[in-house]
Write the structure tokens for this entry.
Amino acid sequence: MEAPRSGKLTSIQELLKRREDIVIRGADALTVRGYTQVPNTMLMHPKLSPGAKITYAMLLRYAWQENQCFPGQERLAKDIGAGERSIRTYLKELETEGFVEIHQRGLGRSNLYVLDITVAKMSVNRGRTRPAKFAGHDRQ
């Protein structure tokens, strides 16, 4: 069963409510609050620092949980355990590499972060198909 596509992200909780044939068993202290999947291509990207990768994972967490993503830099810093200046650096890395679009929403308001997790254009690299912007970033 596939979630209806309306341009909005559908939370895992909502998908689980729609399906009666999925049971999550074995939640413990580490998994009871959920988990976040991060694309391997992003995790292996050679131009991103570990901090940028964790920041992306946290943005994904917010987006899946709330179906939108506009945390303040102060909240990101607190949740990740980094300083606000570091968060700005990580967000700039993500924006430069095309993982995040940042839209300012106005004075005193947090930014809107757009995470494009769809693959629009594919290229062929060494016999494998992969997103064009990641072509050349093969596993070692």
Notes: Residues 12-24+36-134 form a domain with the Arc Repressor Mutant, subunit A fold (CATH 1.10.10.10). The longest strand covers residues 122-125.
